[in-house]
Amino acid sequence: MKKYAYGIDVGGTTVKCGLFETDGTFVKGWEIPTVKDNGGAQILPDIAAAIKGSMAEEGISADDVEGVGIGVPGPVTESGVVNGCVNLGWGVYDVKTALSGLLDGAKVEVGNDANVAALGEMWRGGGKGYRNVVMVTLGTGVGGGIILGGKILHGAHGAGGEIGHITVNRNETLACGCGKKGCLEQYASATGIARKAREVLATPKAEGSSLLKVENVDAKAVFDAAKTGDKTALAIVDFFGRTLGQAVATITAVVDPDVIVVGGGVSKAGQILLDAVVKYYTPNAFNACKETPFKLAVLGNNAGMYGAVKMVLD
Amino acid sequence: MKKYAYGIDVGGTTVKCGLFETDGTFVKGWEIPTVKDNGGAQILPDIAAAIKGSMAEEGISADDVEGVGIGVPGPVTESGVVNGCVNLGWGVYDVKTALSGLLDGAKVEVGNDANVAALGEMWRGGGKGYRNVVMVTLGTGVGGGIILGGKILHGAHGAGGEIGHITVNRNETLACGCGKKGCLEQYASATGIARKAREVLATPKAEGSSLLKVENVDAKAVFDAAKTGDKTALAIVDFFGRTLGQAVATITAVVDPDVIVVGGGVSKAGQILLDAVVKYYTPNAFNACKETPFKLAVLGNNAGMYGAVKMVLD
Predict the structure, then answer these.
(1) What rounded mean pLDDT belongs to chain A?
(2) pTM score > 0.90 for this model?
(3) Which of A73, B131, B247, B284 has its CB surrounded by the most CB atoms within 10 Å?
(4) How far apart are CA A120 and CA A294, in angstroms?
């Protein structure tokens, strides 16, 4: 094993770049802008230039670099082909071959950003010590990543772990971003929690809630109020916990992981969030999976860089 | 690769034994009774004796046998430890080590019977040519098996692919065999279809249905009547298709397989069954998975023996 590897996490606005030692030590991180002009044609050349610049700056030769891992916000097949990234302007794109070509044949591994973050949390985060991990990322949307035997479950169409789009409510009238109605993402994301809060706060049940005094109630405000014992906020958290807990019970009956890691901005609410989920997970889980532990993610926005590095080490 | 391998499928009444060539040719099959006395202590010695008897009869030496694969009706971990088989009287039991010991150190691989059948269908059946398969087995219950990258997804607690116990109806009042309420198995199994038929036939809506003349309506009678255009039977089939189609859409958003194989006694209904499932699968599936094909299983009760052999070849 060579001494260094690079982990790259491509987002819609910035690309996070990390230099790591292959023992998992995070040496240095920096960001470059994501240039989406011309169908995102500049993104990989910019990344290649950033890596070459770092190597020159640090005095690292190509012989010292094990490889470059990269996570992208779209479906990725096992062979490293991206099946369209709307956010970046990419269509079907063989990122593995293209980036390797820009880096003089360096080893490149590519994964979906949520899957790669799950791998990072398994390697150095909330799933450390486990080989079979389901990660649920609660942000603007709901992302998911499944790691089995230490490897990403990419899926036949790059859609492995797309758990935000499990249908959980067949009576929903509003469409999800994916076009279906009633997806988990519509209830368990920051956006979904805020929507539910607005609905509840417009009813007489919310009388006396501290949330009525908050302008633009978001998920954080809901969890903060719940921690003070606000009954309306607690009811919204309970609804969230029921929806996500039941969905995770379905997921564990399918893949039976060692651990469930919950990450993303919403997970910063901490133990109150896990408690709400576990309350409904346990009675809905298949017997053999009832005791499967829930853990909070710990790497935050760096999980993608860690996971990207881990891909090239395997 | 040696010339022969044995595939064993342990059921609650009989043990199916198969001698195969390692190229997949089925040479000879036979059955022995499953002796469940004394906590099933005799089952593995009986199997070992059956294999040794076959080897003597066929003039096969130990040097010609690649190994023995065995499927059992209970959860099995990746290391071949069975976590209790109520049907056989077994508790936690290291079947891999025990059977290998009885066979002079032969290579033994162990799997859950539904998972092993899925592997068999991938190797030589409805999933031939694919490496990522979800198999749904519709029998007295609903079994499932998931094959990823050509390997069984055992799961951390041997519960990988336990899709019969996904909760699909949160308003169910009757308990499933597993203790939960509203499991897929309660609606999509032969038992579940017959129960739904009894409910529907007791209502005025069923007036004029040919099923009213059938004593002890079972799943086969329902599908047979549906094929003649019986409206009541078609409605029962539609309910079945909706329940299973929605559930499979959830499963594919989690593991994104190449193909879904439907087997078990109920699947003998054929294309009408697949059509009913696909009708509800497609609108409920995540975009990338909408075109995932459904296939009928083809190996019938032999799938377990085929899959057991495949385990030892990998």
Answers:
(1) 96
(2) yes
(3) B247
(4) 16
